[in-house]
Amino acid sequence: MSESGLQKSERLINLTMALLASRRYLTKAEIFRSVEGYSGTPETMERMFERDKNDLRDLGLEIEVGSEDPLFEDESGYRINPKRYSLDIGELDQTELALLSLAANQWQNSLLSKSGQRAIRKFESIEGVQEPVSLALPFVKSEIPAEHFALLWDAVESRKEVNFTYHSLQSTERRIAPYGLGLHQGFWYLIGLDLDKSEIRNFKIVRIDSDLSVGKKAGVFERPTDFSLSAYFHHQESGRDQQSAILDIRVGKAQEIRAIASVQPLNDDWDRAHISYSSKRELLELVAKALTSAIIVEPLDLREEFICWMEVKRHG
Amino acid sequence: MVETALERTSRALDLIPFVAANPGMTIEELAVKFESTPSQIFKDLEMLFMCGLPGYSHLELIDMELEEDYVAIRNPQNLDKPRKLSRTETASLTLGLDLLLPLIGDAELKRKAAGLRARFTTLLGEDAPPVASVIKGSEMHASENDNVIALALAQQSSLEITYRSASTDEISTRTIFPLSTYGERDHLYTIAFCSKAGEERHFRHDRIISAKPAEATERHLPSEGLKADKDLTVIKVLISPKARFFVEAHSSIVDAVTPHGDELLVTFTIGDHDWLLRELLALPGGLKVVEPLEFAQTLQRRLDAILDQYR
Fold this sequence. Notes:
Order of helices and strands of chain B: HHHEEHHEHEEEEEEHEEHEH
Oligomer: heterodimer
Shape of chain B: elongated
Distance between the termini of chain B: 66 Å
Order of helices and strands of chain A: HEHHEEHHHEHEEEEEHEHEEHEH
């Protein structure tokens, strides 16, 4: 007969308290004798205890294994070191608690927001619930990734392989050794080794299909020790040269261009703007958004590219 | 959803030190605090009545007072302190601090936030690399105008701003009453009641050319929900998969995205047509407005006029 969840929880809490209370290692025999909830044949209790031990470890509790008597090493015992069990973060003043609460409340995605609330409850278990202090800091919106986020988090942490269909220009099947998750300009990315291409790639999580599957086996790859998420992203974005362009812009218009260009009057209707840019695409976007208030004068190849950019839209 | 014994155990272990530090809360309040239900919390507490240290006499059991409108723990035994933070709990705080840090203008507050960040990094341990990071270098930064706006928000006072509008390509001066500030992707925005528009608008901070306290303050309350539906139109557009980023970045105005041959059919519900028109023209790849006809015609006229300038 299987026991009820309540009975099991009760026994796990009693076991935790007993292991925490003991200064020395408790043998299994002592545990079975003294901790409430263990009953049945020795084999049954043995199985119960093995499961309970794993369950408590899954909850993040560190159960130390050792022996009191060096002559009888076989008879190993168990305990939980109170120092390694409880939260020790030192004193937190009201402003710091408010900052932490704000940090925990930045998340709309359930894994991080639930974890954040749990953390705050732990601080409130030391200091008591505090009157909220207003810090007048903004809330930073980031994408709310689907359920993928928790799965990918686990895959990164436990080093499990992931498989999914990725929707970019085409939809392709990917097999990835996940190295980490990065929040970049409001979007979450998965960064990992593409096992078919043998290259490190990044994947915007919103583009990962619902067919995402995480391998069962943990620790199937090693993340290179010199790998850094930040360095990876910076490398992606570096290496762009600054270039310059000349645009004619209408007097009193093209305000977004005026804000970043150096502008001289040309005639009654037009000004001439000198602008430097590192991303060609960003410049083309800026000119397109100005509608008829901006014309690219040079360089000529940029001018041609802009014409193509517009032509392709005219033909639908 | 059925709860596992482990989930209950985890919550119960957290409940004891919390109630011990905050005596006198109701079951209802505890349920809200622990994102659970009153009946679950009641069951947890009932179970905890039976828990304690070996011996299990009244001296060793967790000693609790349990009433519908009053819960207190007189003796939590050795569960008086909260458990240490898990990796995801620590990550939620450190990543949140990473998002906030660049936005803090006040030096003392920034020092405190940086100090906390360092304390929690130590807690995470050096042995394992972080699962997730906020990528540095792309974050928003506090500017002089941000501080003026933050002050107006704190004092609930109006501001006079000079603003560069992206949808009309004009600079105008207006009086605004700031309601809240948020960050999204690369930019900070303030939601404010705009006296010129007679309604709430979102102002992007880097488009605010100047900001100063207004001579008089006209207070407003934040409006509830979105603008009335009558101002909104459904616009259907075919775009290239190359322009997918635009749909992802503006998910709040996107109703549906469906593959359509090699293209994506996107349905927007939007009030500001001028803004959408400029944004669509700036997307890479082809573009075709499916409906409404009027918007399609306006877009074609704009395109023709732009291309005419290059002839």
